[in-house]
TrEMBL record, chains A, B:
Domain of life: Eukaryota
Protein name: Beta-hexosaminidase
Residues forming the catalytic site: 320
SS bond list: 62-101, 274-325, 502-519
Stored PANTHER family: BETA-HEXOSAMINIDASE, BETA-HEXOSAMINIDASE SUBUNIT ALPHA
Name of encoding gene: hexa
InterPro entries, sorted: Beta_hexosaminidase_sua/sub (IPR025705), GH (IPR017853), Glyco_hydro_20_cat (IPR015883), Hex-like_dom2 (IPR029018), HEX_eukaryotic_N (IPR029019)
Function: Hydrolyzes the non-reducing end N-acetyl-D-hexosamine and/or sulfated N-acetyl-D-hexosamine of glycoconjugates, such as the oligosaccharide moieties from proteins and neutral glycolipids, or from certain mucopolysaccharides. The isozyme S is as active as the isozyme A on the anionic bis-sulfated glycans, the chondroitin-6-sulfate trisaccharide (C6S-3), and the dermatan sulfate pentasaccharide, and the sulfated glycosphingolipid SM2. The isozyme B does not hydrolyze each of these substrates, however hydrolyzes efficiently neutral oligosaccharide.
Catalytic class of the enzyme: hydrolase
Gene3D superfamilies per the UniProt record, alphabetical: Chitobiase/beta-hexosaminidase domain 2-like, Glycosidases
Beta-hexosaminidase eukaryotic type N-terminal domain segment(s): 27-142
Length: 526, 526
């Protein structure tokens, strides 16, 4: 059936400038391969169903895809209120090779899929349920409405897979508390953009909102408020479940030894007491690396964390450790002497981080750490992932070269610090990043496993998160998913992103405008 | 009664650093004079009423204050669902000298008020209903809740009046269409900040959303969409009514002769046809100043506009006129010769604007124009108001000197182009503007009638309007209302503005955070 259809089609490699002539909207991010014809089918919400193919490994009862079908119906037919179905529906037949319907997406999950809209139906084939989710998203973006409200989908063929395995968004829930709905809404928008990792920078200096069952004082004393500004175990489970249904991993970060001021409130003795001369000043520095109790505490905390968060990776932080307080403390100085570190505090930091990575390894998790850990030449297992967050474009290229030369995998976040804002179309800056533009072998380039958009929380909370994130993060979303050669022009991307942003609005995502203009349906929120 | 109360009090001129010790929140913008004691009253929503004093000119039936009482009850008791009242209520007794309950606020409306909270009641006295509105806002901000949800108000005495008569916010509904709810919500927030002029930059090059009864083609052809992206006469009336109830004037701007591309679609012949050599190029420039039909059209349009908008001022625009197209057009060149303008096109622009100001005068309205009209030395009536929008700080001071020396009144907008954004706490920049810091006599300084926050729409629509506007515009709000000597320190203002921003959130205004921290009630919108 599909073969017959292909013959009828006028196949052409899509010329992107002419693309918008055929579709009102195209798929964002750009699929690896997409072609389409002028032929189109009218879709009637009352004659439209999703269906498992007879040979599919996933069948009715596959919670993940059953709920995806339910979700995508109103995403496709935005105006439509559910009604009974008629005969001869337009069918989206879904075929999955391996049905991990109750599992979690992980680092090696395939997200590839093939989609064919042809002969009055759509066929979606994927190795995994995660790939099927990506294909459903693409299908939903192929559907468009004309001026009379009728729905259409053009004959289309897509073969698609992500360029990078790790496509993350970081939210910071310590500098400002983000209510649960803001996190869930972000996960929705991430799935529309085919992001697949929610990096939850859950705690930091200002507050500790994670409600630990092992150490309840951490949030009861370290959160902005012990009951209204915390994430309970139920909240965390809800985030993980919501993410799972959208094929999104939840990567928890418990950053130490720096960035831990809020930890100290609920865990006395954890932080280093700073000294002024020979007396404690009353202030505290990073986690005390000289006390074995620090590592005992961390072992118990991470035992909990790694059981609560199912992902096989955990983020240990390790950035921006200020040595001033360590240097002031006589016990820490004594420990330095005993360990033979001399006065090189980077050795102390290394020692701390090595211990942390080993704790993680003992819990069968792989560690991700900020680049500082590499910069200080710590001895860390080679499967540790380094996370680049700082430097000029030149320094970033240098860092990419050095880290991959040492054989470590790397995630690139530095160019996508999206909390920073400028007046005008700064999405272009995020779009034109070339993650593999550094000196290195093919083997080195393969060690760049992806990138991440970081929304640090100094000036961001639920009031401005969405318009600051979308559609600016969508630019990074396409860079991380699509073929760079097919998506190198901001001029070509602009009208597609304008359309996609209107689609986000239509789905209730408060995405800000790119420039002068309008959407058929403007934002109707508060 | 009031006198007795005063004696009991420990009066003190408020030291602003210690202010937050007494109140959780203070009044924003800072009243001209405020003092308070540690004594406080518990407010019970079921025992609280607003009431007219027996001698007040306004009495029950005064629509404006009746509806303000209804509005302020839930603003004060945010958690409370209405119930029957108990005996012995806490009473806010309102006394108004002149009851213009059905009128509109205008340029010479007094907004001063006196508020005394004492002896278990509050007494609010104002010359006008507009002053009473400002006093109700201040009273509502004096009320705070403790950790158990109980409401309190401290004994307080306020004498207050605005520093500047004109405290405006410009919204641009041409570059992006703003749905009605976004405008109404902005008016709500303006009243919380004691802004009193909504400058509605309603049309411009990209679109003409104003649905004119005289020239319906202007919007049916010039709007982004003829039915979903227009402001009907009913919409406009609703905006004006909503503004009136909050003591806010609606200043309509129909900018010409430039910024009129969208006008040309529905009014053929209005714009100047541009020429390439000896033939029309197919593009159009500013309004054609050589055709008498242009002035006939404008007379009819402004006759409608000035009857729809009750304010005694109207904004004629007059900025950024590009002469290229005029120069290319042989008819315009012929007209120049005939009028003896030589090749000085500023004379042609002057001629056009003089005609426009005279049309306005004939309709009994006073014109406001952008500074360009002054810069080109046009002969305009001395009651015209100039609107400064451009230049470096030095140039702005020079412009203030020149315009006021020539005897014109002036509104300062240039320092408050709030659509421009920077990373970090840029509210400080808006807060520290000194509008009267220019060389000039006392008489000249008096000609500075106020300032305006401009939210141009290139990158702004309903998705990001609120968080971009608030609380950054609040900084300008205090500068324009309060005594500069009492509000010169950003360090003192910061905690007050942080509290005020939480109050805005609590009232449903999507105001973004100033820095790391939290509000007791976080934003619960989408």
């Amino acid at each position: 059936l599909a073969r017959r259809c292909y013959k009828q089609w006028l196949w052409f490699m899509v010329l992107f400038m002419s693309f918008s002539v055929i579709y009102v909207d195209a798929v964002w991010p750009m699929p690896q391969m997409i072609s389409s014809s002028m032929a189109r089918y009218t879709l009637n919400p009352r004659e439209f169903i999703f269906q498992y193919s007879s040979g599919s490994s996933a069948q009715p009862g596959c919670s993940l895809l059953d709920s995806a079908f339910e979700r995508y119906f109103p995403l496709i037919f935005t105006d439509y209120r559910h009604d009974e179905w008629f005969r001869f529906p337009f069918t989206v037949v879904v075929h999955v090779e391996r049905a991990e319907c109750e599992g979690y997406p992980d680092a090696d999950s395939s997200e590839s899929y093939k989609l064919s809209v042809c002969s009055g139906q759509a066929a979606l084939r994927a190795e995994t349920v995660w790939g099927a989710l990506r294909g459903l998203e693409s299908f939903s973006q192929l559907v468009y409405q004309d001026d009379f409200g009728e729905y259409f989908v053009n004959e289309t063929k897509i073969e698609d897979f992500p360029r990078f395995q790790f496509r993350g968004i970081l939210l910071d829930t310590s500098r400002h508390y983000l209510p649960l709905h803001a996190i869930l809404k972000t996960l929705d928008a991430m799935s529309y953009n085919k992001f697949n990792v929610f990096h939850w920078h859950i705690v930091d200096d200002p507050s500790f909102p994670y409600q630990s069952s092992t150490f309840p004082d951490l949030s009861s004393k370290g959160a902005f408020h012990p009951s209204t500004h915390v994430y309970t175990q139920i909240d965390v489970k809800r985030v993980i479940a919501h993410a799972r249904l959208r094929g999104i991993r939840v990567l928890a970060e418990f950053d130490s030894p720096g960035h831990t001021q809020s930890w100290g409130k609920g865990q006395p003795g954890l932080l280093t007491p700073c000294y002024k001369g020979t007396v404690p000043s009353g202030t505290f520095g990073p986690v005390n690396p000289a006390n074995s109790s620090s590592y005992q505490f961390m072992t118990r905390l991470f035992k909990e964390v790694t059981s609560v968060f199912p992902d096989s990776y955990v983020h240990l932080g390790g950035d921006e450790v200020d040595f001033t307080c360590w240097k002031s403390n006589p016990d820490v100085r004594g420990f330095m002497l005993k360990m033979g570190f001399g006065t090189d505090y980077t050795k102390l930091e290394s020692y701390y981080m090595e211990n942390m990575v080993n704790i993680t390894k003992g819990l069968n998790k792989t560690a991700i750490v900020w680049q500082d850990v590499f910069d200080y030449h710590e001895k860390i297992p080679v499967d540790t992932v380094l996370h680049i967050w700082k430097g000029s474009p030149g320094q970033i290229q240098q860092e990419l070269s050095s880290i991959t030369l040492a054989g470590y995998r790397v995630i690139l976040a530095a160019p996508w610090y999206i909390n920073h804002i400028d007046y005008g179309q700064d999405w272009e800056k995020y779009y034109t990043i070339q993650p593999l533009n550094f000196t290195g072998t093919e083997q080195q380039k393969k060690l760049v496993i992806g990138g991440e958009v970081c929304m640090w929380g100094e000036y961001v909370d639920a009031t401005n998160l969405s318009p600051r994130l979308w559609p600016r993060a969508s630019a990074a979303g396409e860079r991380l998913w699509s073929d760079e050669r097919m998506t190198s022009s901001v001029i070509d991307a602009f009208p597609r992103l304008v359309d996609f942003r209107c689609r986000l609005l239509r789905r209730g995502i408060q995405a800000e405008p790119l420039f002068v203009g309008h959407c058929r349906h403007e934002y109707q929120g508060i």
